[in-house]
Specification:
Blueprint (H helix, E strand, L loop, with lengths): L13 E5 L4 H12 L3 E5 L3 H15 L2 E4 L10 H12 L4 E4 L15 H28 L3 E6 L12 H21 L4 E8 L5 H9 L3 H7 L13 H8 L10 E4 L6
Parallel strand pairs: 1-2, 1-4, 2-3, 4-5, 5-6, 6-7
Length: about 260
């Protein structure tokens, strides 16, 4: 066996991380750059993409470029992927991290427009990005797709029913992708975080004081994770370290049960 540390080396790989100008996405992008990948920073705001790409390049010494894309715009995704290929010749890793949970939703009161907005970004955006990226990976010998889910896809809270449902659907879709694209040597997995100190969670804390403590108490570790703690698990799924792993869901939740 070669040095096992090489299994996590992303040198020469090109990685897209959607929703990577803040929170978990930004941490993942910086982690990939430190592992040697060329990273495409993407969100809806080109200025923010450029700023974060510049910061990551300066901090890590790696290569990061910014390219905006609204993943909820079905027709915008193909040209985005084409631009990435034109700039970098290949795509080896895709992390579908972009997601929204803009306001509380309950089963009895969630309006149709909010339901569709959440599914549009969280499910359809990931589907479209995968549809466009997987053939590129196939033509370059394979790749790894990581769809960011949530523990709420197993037990949705009363205030985020649409969010939890969209991520549960994403988990099912991931298995279908993994089965269909295995002959292409494209692996597709879900990573389901528990409570992390992202802008989304801290936003809920402002609206519902005590949210962070409630979430922390749901974990055996009795804490909310720092965003940097997502990097190791995602790096595992994106790299050769998980070469025999596809169609799976890696929960990173401090011990929360499904």
């Amino acid at each position: 066996m070669d040095d096992p540390r090489k299994l996590f080396d992303l040198t020469g790989r090109v990685a897209i991380v959607t929703g990577s100008t803040r929170g978990l996405g930004r941490a993942i992008a910086e982690g990939f750059a430190r592992a040697g990948a060329t990273v495409v920073i993407s969100s809806r705001d080109q200025d923010a993409c450029d700023a974060v790409a510049r910061e990551i390049s300066e901090t890590t010494g790696g290569v990061a470029t910014g390219l905006a894309c609204h993943v909820g715009d079905w027709d915008a995704v193909p040209s985005f992927v084409d631009d990435v290929v034109s700039a970098h010749d290949r795509i080896d890793i895709l992390v579908n991290n972009a997601g929204i949970n803009p306001e509380p939703q309950s089963v009895g009161t969630v309006p149709l427009d909010l339901w569709r907005k959440i599914f549009n970004v969280n499910l359809e955006g990931a589907l479209r990005m995968c549809q466009c990226v997987a053939p590129v990976m196939r033509d370059n010998g394979g790749g790894s797709i990581v769809n960011i889910g949530t523990m709420e896809s197993y037990a949705s809270t009363p205030i985020s029913v649409a969010y939890g449902a969209s991520k549960a659907a994403l988990r099912h879709l991931t298995v279908s992708m993994a089965n269909e694209w295995a002959p292409w040597k494209v692996r597709v997995n879900v990573l389901s975080p528990g409570p992390f100190a992202t802008e989304m969670i801290t936003g809920f804390e402002k609206t519902y004081p005590g949210t962070l403590k409630i979430l922390a108490d749901m974990t055996p570790q009795k804490r909310v994770a720092d965003v940097d703690e997502i990097v190791g698990p995602v790096l595992y799924l994106a790299s050769a370290a998980s070469s025999f792993v596809t169609g799976d869901d890696l929960t990173v939740s401090g011990g929360m049960r499904k």
